[in-house]
UniProtKB/TrEMBL annotation:
Compartments where found: Cell membrane
Organism from which the protein derives: Caldalkalibacillus uzonensis
Domain of life: Bacteria
TM spans (from-to): 37-62, 74-96, 139-157, 178-199, 205-231, 344-366
Gene3D superfamilies: Sodium:dicarboxylate symporter
Primary subcellular site in the record, as a coarse category: membrane
Assigned keywords, A-Z: Cell membrane, Membrane, Symport, Transmembrane, Transmembrane helix, Transport
Membrane topology type: Multi-pass membrane protein
Pfam short name (any one): SDF
PROSITE patterns: NA_DICARBOXYL_SYMP_2 (PS00714)
Entry protein name: Na+/H+-dicarboxylate symporter
């Protein structure tokens, strides 16, 4: 392991987990504590890392207008790529027809669909009534709001708030170092997370729904290789190969943990060290993306809806397809911070076109497998946004500097 770089070690552990899971079946559950340990260490880092890095990032910016500019670009980017993602998911599902001729014994009990509180209430919930409770509960959106307010407060107070700024700056550096230490355990953690999943599900569950898995996997791959690569190349001025290689460790950890928030420390580390994203941009764009960016989940919605429609023999009109696209796109923001976001989004989408909610049970057995694909795409999408927004801010800073120089010359 010492002779391998971290990406090679994680890939090696990932392949080994698949092989061992297939060979030993449910007996491989014995390695699950290794995965749980790694996941707990990652979760242990998240809250102080997000709080400290975002406070420092906002205080370093020192300009509310810049924050508004970055926030606007980030939201537009996330909504735009989600729109593309759901379209790709629908297209691939229509081409592959995953629900045609499928006969599934419904042995899995349908999970209870939970309703979202709605877009407006979600926005109101961003403001914590008790910031300390938000920190204790790990409410990422509320922590982001609290951190932004602290950072702006430090900027407005000025020199007297320097001790507070230095405290958070030191805390941020400590958390970056701890993230590096935890990442050494990533290959062991990935093995402990993936092997039990492979051992538990096996081919008996996967075979009848193999076309669904292939459709989601293919759509996710196309979204990453085409959408993100083009955006990173044209808007981010970065080689797609460099981007994909740089964010690959975070993508694999996301695949293993199925948690965008849980992968956040690794995403921030990769974006800064491998992709060269500034601290101020990564501190804002990535925590926000881990909470509201759901490109992978949007792809899953597209495939799942077409699969359910084909299974029940329903014909979807163009208007219904358009409704699915719009509902899934805006639901990606409306379900932010709610547990089981994928299930909630699917419930909302099915309801929007009057499709049977019983369809959720059909893919419940492979939801964990599909969650791996969609979470990886979500994380890669977060990183692509950070690269694009950071490049845009650098161009803006360059144009502003040129304008000032011309004004002085005039």
């Amino acid at each position: 392991m010492k002779k391998m770089n971290i990406l090679t070690a994680i890939l090696f552990a990932f392949v080994a987990a698949i092989i061992c899971g297939a060979l030993f079946g449910s007996a491989i559950e014995v390695v699950k504590p290794l995965g749980d340990l790694f996941l707990r260490l990652i979760q242990f880092i998240i809250v102080p890392l997000v709080l400290a890095s975002l406070v420092v990032g906002v205080a370093s910016t020192g300009d509310p207008k810049k924050l508004g500019r970055i926030g606007g670009k980030t939201i537009v980017y996330y909504l735009g790529t989600t729109l593309i993602a759901i379209t790709i998911g629908l297209t691939i599902a229509i081409i592959l027809s995953p629900g045609g001729g499928v006969d599934i014994p419904q042995q899995v009990e349908a999970p209870e669909p939970r309703e979202t509180e709605g877009f407006i209430q979600t926005l109101l919930n961003i403001i914590p009534t008790n910031p300390l409770a938000a920190l204790a509960e790990g409410a990422i959106l509320q922590i982001i709001f609290f951190a932004i307010c602290l950072g702006l407060g430090i900027t407005l107070v000025g020199e007297r708030a320097n001790p507070v700024y230095h405290f958070f700056d030191g805390l941020a550096e400590i958390m970056y170092r701890l993230t590096g230490i935890v990442m050494v355990l990533a290959p062991i953690g990935v093995f402990g997370l993936v092997a039990p999943v492979v051992g538990q599900h096996g081919l008996s569950v996967l075979l009848p729904l193999l076309k669904v898995i292939v459709a989601v996997g293919l759509a996710c791959l196309l979204h990453v290789l085409i959408t993100y690569s083009i955006l990173v190349k044209t808007l981010g001025k970065m080689s797609p190969l460099k981007f994909l290689k740089g964010i690959a460790p975070a993508g694999i950890v996301a695949f293993s943990t199925t948690s965008s928030a849980g992968t956040l420390p690794v995403t921030i580390k990769n974006a800064r060290e491998n992709l060269g994203v500034s601290h101020s941009t990564s501190s804002f764009v990535l925590p926000l993306g881990a909470t509201i960016n759901m490109d992978g989940t949007a792809i899953y919605q597209g495939v799942a809806v077409i699969f359910i429609a084909q299974f029940f023999g329903l014909e979807l009109t163009f208007t219904q397809l358009l409704t699915i696209v719009l509902t899934a796109t805006f639901a990606s923001i409306g379900t932010a911070g709610v547990p089981g976001a994928g299930l909630i989004m699917l419930t909302m989408v099915l309801t929007s076109v009057n499709m049977p909610l019983e369809g959720i049970v059909l893919i419940a057995g492979i939801d964990r497998i599909l969650d791996m694909f969609r979470t990886s795409v979500n994380v890669v999408g977060d990183a692509s946004a950070a690269v694009v927004v950071d490049a845009s801010e650098q161009r803006y800073a360059g144009q502003y500097a040129d304008g000032q120089d011309q004004g002085m010359t005039g």
